[in-house]
Amino acid sequence: QNFENYPLVVAANRDEHFDRPSAAPALLDGDPKIIAGQDLRAGGTWLGVNESGLMVGILNRRINSIKGDALPPTVARSRGLLCLQLLQTNRATEALNVIERDKARYNPFTIVFADKDAAYVAYNDDAKILVQQLKPGLHVFSSVAEFDLNSAKAERARARFASLMIRLSENGNQPKEWLAPLQHILSDHSLADGSDDPGDAICVHRETSGTVSSSIIFLAR
Asked: Structure pTM?
């Protein structure tokens, strides 16, 4: 769905272990200026936006057991540092160049980067990073592996967001009216029919891990 004055709208939850230290989104030193949360263990971020209008968000991706265990920290570069590195560029096309030249090894991730003119998603497969340009419209990402593979949880979220976007687009470009309904979706604790797994909810609550933050970003034209 296209919003005339807001080419990019992002609604995202961060799920993490509760004992992993982090700092709330704040203005970071550097050029360009960046607003992002900070992972206080590895030094990167999971989501941010810079003064040039570039948004970057990264998700840890579930490991396919066929491909083995996670790389140890001595081998794998922090995924959050890649997110922060892309935020130091000025445009999505510049971030794309950084991704295409990257030779570091990471544990599995999905990363999304976009500005008002272009949007991309990338994920790593062993030592390679694969990239796909995103067309205008609704896109939902979770911890699944490929671009076109969606979990039941992601499909439930997609249906919720699709219904909301139709309603919001009919009511005009008023971000202050979008905030509460987007927050309502991000805080949804309902499970799929027959499920008793708290991880099936959009907002996750487990004993040692779960949703630790929610972010909503409106990028004006």
From this structure: 0.90
Here the tokens at position 84 are 């922060």
Report which secondary-structure segment, H or E, holds 109: strand 109-114
How would you class 100 by CB atoms within 10 Å of its CB: exposed for 0-12, middle for 13-18, buried for 19 or more?
Answer: exposed
SS3 (DSSP) at 78: coil
**Alpha carbon distance, N-terminus to C-terminus of the chain:** 15
What pLDDT score does 171 carry?
65
Q: Is the peptide bond before 136 cis (omega within 30 degrees of 0)?
A: no
What is the tens place of the pLDDT at every residue in 36-61? 999 999 999 999 999 999 999 999 98
Could you tell me the CA-to-CA distances from 201 to 162, 165, 195, 210 in Å, in that order?
Answer: 17, 20, 10, 10
Residue type, 80: G
Q: Which residues of the chain have pLDDT under 50?
A: 1, 65-66
In this structure, the number of other CB atoms found within 10 A of the CB of residue 84 comes to: 23
What mean pLDDT value characterizes the chain?
A: 88
How far is it, in rounded angstroms, from Cα 129 to Cα 122? 7
Residue 184, classified by CB atoms within 10 Å of its CB into exposed (0-12), middle (13-18) or buried (19+), is exposed
| DSSP string for 2-70 | --TT-SEEEEEEEEEETTS-EEEEEEESSSS-EEEEEETTTS--SEEEETTS-EEEEEE-PPPGGG-SP
The pLDDT value recorded for residue 101 is 95
